[in-house]
Design brief:
The structure holds two protein chains of two kinds. Chain A is α/β, with parallel strands linked by helices. Chain A is built from twelve helices and twelve strands. Classes of the chains: A alpha/beta, B alpha/beta.
């Protein structure tokens, strides 16, 4: 399969009163047609800004995409004008957001909000677009879709609203669906419904997905590949089995170790990542993870490691070889310094 | 809630032998009125946020209270601490029924029980320094001594929760989320409580920071012998920290058991669905797992279904579930469940009295 989208050295910064926030510091990756790529990171890691930059949804000012290329079907999206970009946004690249309550317009009916995109991008008339909207709502599992078309967002529950958002995202048969933490605001049983739904829709419709999340669990059963972001850099990248089975970056390792797992016997003690992420106003010249890293060596403090290939599709930005490190310590006592 | 249930609840505590019951919650109800009209408000219904729950909390243990949003778990925590005035039921803490005592006595009792809130950004006053936030309970309860002694105590508390004692004059905005939550913990500890309600203390924090706060809470418990009611929606975290776990659905506890028992042998169909929905960070396991996908949404607590509250979404629903409410019965070794799939569970009528149903 060919690459649907290629991101090259993307850099996004915010110019604020306090200085320049280095949100995304040169990230390079690609997404193949029909592929699901998960971007995992904590708040402030640049995962959302990095993906929003692809379709230039960054408020300018204060934000600015200072460098990079985004090749989508032979075009550099960063060089298109606003009019050309509108032909792509919501049409060939669609997006669903975290909070379905704030991303739906409360004073328009659900039907109006879905048909708007259909009339704009696919030149449908009222009747056609209404018919298509009903189909879409049925596709995402909203019961009695024809009657609910004239309801307002507040008349739907959180899970149902997210289904409406997905229906809107899919309305123009996008080639790429960007999902920015679409289940974070939902309860676990509803989250399971939505993940199940997205997986089914992808099988039927074959679009590529970029799924942004902070929760390593949600994407484990969903993603083909995983990118781990920290402090505006991609620090690790690889096929999903390899990332979860044998992480080669200390940050990925730390994330996996710091969350309790439902299926394992009780871990004696969680191993947190001590310290805090670096200040993006004044990012260090060293490896950004070095101050929190337990594997740190001298070289880490002098030189920020680039994302280096380790074979079989995996890349890691770390000077240290972690190939012998087990994720979960199986020995009885895990010796860690107490926080107190 | 039936007499029988109350009997069972007290049996449960006797079974545990020497363990001391610190807190006993009996048939606690918290209904919020729905009113209509602007000047002449009349009540047209009520939101049954918590609708008759019973459990014991032993000294030094952690009871996890899990459920989805709107199930009443936070309301339970607040009603126990009398931050709301419960509609009905008893909350017996260290031998005293908190729902019956006067405001002066209640204030004295508040020294013994504290709360850690969910959102460390919203629960700290941005205009107060860390010193005055942590020191305020000392002043309110007049236990701090002189200003000098108070300051020493605050610095000691900051050290206990892993913050630099020199931060005493800083403001909340100068701290990260994890550090703010530590300030919240320090404030709760200031009055030397024996019981702390932790209301989703880590859900607003980043993943790598969550483990820091969980470890802190565990360390404090083992050093100070604290008792926790740990309210959360994240079952993985609750499993990690709790000794026993209660699962809530729509204002009622549907299952309560020891941690390992609940995870290895969940009895209630809701618990089973909830456990199967929790994602596990392992692609090999995730690809093989069979999820129980629940249909539909949680019904409104203003208009709960007749019979079992879960009957509208239950994959194993039977006729009796739609007619009668199940009792909350011990099915062995302190494993309580409210579901007609189990013989020990009796049907209840609308008044909560057992009824006999022809087989």
């Amino acid at each position: 399969m060919g690459n649907l989208i290629e991101v090259r050295n993307l850099q996004t910064q915010f110019f604020t009163q306090d200085g320049i926030v280095h949100a995304v510091n040169g990230i390079t990756y690609e997404v193949a047609e029909g592929e699901t790529v998960a971007i995992v990171g904590e708040s402030g890691s640049g995962k959302s800004v990095g993906v929003m930059s692809l379709i230039r949804l960054i408020p300018e000012p204060p934000g600015k995409i200072v460098d990079g290329e985004v090749n989508f079907d032979g075009q550099d999206l960063l060089k298109l004008n606003e009019e050309e970009l509108r032909q792509i946004r919501g049409n060939r690249i669609a997006m669903i957001f975290q909070d379905p309550m704030t991303s739906l317009n409360p004073v328009l009916t659900i039907g109006r909000q879905i048909t708007e995109a259909l009339e704009l991008h696919l030149n449908m008339n009222r009747e056609e677009s209404r018919k298509r909207a009903i189909e879409l709502l049925e596709l995402v599992g909203i019961p009695d879709a024809a009657a609910r078309l004239d309801d307002y967002p507040h008349q739907f529950s959180g899970g149902m609203r997210q289904r409406v958002m997905i229906a809107m995202g899919l309305s123009c048969n996008p080639q790429l669906l960007i999902a920015d933490e679409p289940t974070t605001a939902l309860d676990v049983t509803i989250q399971a419904q939505i993940v199940d739904l997205v997986r089914r829709l992808q099988n039927e419709l074959g679009m590529a997905i970029i799924w942004i999340t902070h929760d390593l669990g949600v994407v484990a059963g969903l993603a083909d590949r995983v990118l781990v972001m920290y402090s505006g850099f991609i620090v690790e990248e690889g096929p999903v089995d390899i990332i979860y089975g044998q992480p080669r970056h200390p940050y990925t390792l730390g994330l996996l170790r710091s969350i309790p797992r439902l299926d394992l016997g009780r871990q004696k003690r969680l191993i947190p990542i001590e310290g805090l992420p670096p200040d993006l106003l004044d990012p260090p010249k060293s490896c950004p993870f070095a101050p929190r890293c337990t594997f740190v060596i001298d070289r880490c403090l002098e030189e920020n490691p680039p994302l280096m290939s380790l074979g079989s599709g995996r890349k890691s930005a770390c000077w240290v070889d972690l190939s012998d490190v087990e994720i979960y310590d199986t020995s009885a006592d895990t010796q860690v310094e107490a926080v107190v | 809630m039936s007499e029988q249930n109350l009997q069972q609840a007290s049996n449960a505590s006797q079974n545990t032998g020497a363990d001391e019951v610190l807190l006993r919650v009996l048939n606690l109800k918290m209904h919020f009125p729905i009113t209509r009209g602007i000047i002449l408000q009349r009540q047209v219904g009520s939101i049954k946020a918590v609708d008759g729950i019973t459990f014991d909390l032993l000294r030094g243990e952690t009871l996890g209270l899990v459920g989805e949003s709107g199930c009443g778990k936070s309301t339970t925590g607040r009603a126990i601490l009398q931050l709301y005035e419960p509609t009905d039921g008893e909350v017996i803490f260290e031998g005293q029924d908190l729902t019956q005592i006067g405001s002066g006595d209640l204030r004295r009792m508040r020294r013994r029980m504290q709360m850690i809130f969910q959102d460390p950004y919203a629960s700290l006053n941005p205009r107060m320094t860390v010193g005055s936030i942590v020191g305020e309970p000392l002043e309110v309860h007049k236990i701090g001594g002189s200003r000098r002694e108070q300051q020493e105590r605050v610095q000691e508390l900051l050290k206990i929760v892993g913050l630099n004692p020199y931060f005493i004059n800083r403001y909340p905005h100068e701290f990260s989320g994890g550090q703010r939550q530590r300030i919240g913990v320090a404030r709760a500890l200031a009055v030397n409580p024996s019981f702390i309600v932790c209301d989703e203390p880590i859900s607003a924090l980043d993943v790598s920071i969550q483990a820091q706060v969980i470890n802190l809470l565990e360390d404090l418990q083992s050093e100070m012998g604290l008792t926790y009611l740990f309210i959360a929606h994240d079952l993985s975290v609750v499993r990690h920290i709790s000794d026993r776990i209660a699962v809530m659905y729509l204002g009622k506890i549907v299952e309560l058991a020891d941690r390992e028992e609940l995870y290895e042998n969940p009895l209630h169909p809701y618990t089973q669905a909830l456990l199967s929905a929790v994602p596990i960070p392992d692609p090999q396991i995730e690809k093989k797992r069979q999820r129980i996908i629940l249909e539909g949404d949680v019904p409104s607590p203003a208009d709960p279904p007749t019979g079992c509250n879960f009957s509208t979404r239950c994959p194993q629903v039977m006729d009796i579930c739609r007619q009668h409410e199940p009792s909350f019965a011990d099915v062995g070794d302190g494993h309580y469940v409210a579901c007609f799939l189990y013989d020990e569970v009796q049907p209840l009528n609308a008044e909560g009295k057992p009824v006999t149903v022809a087989a």
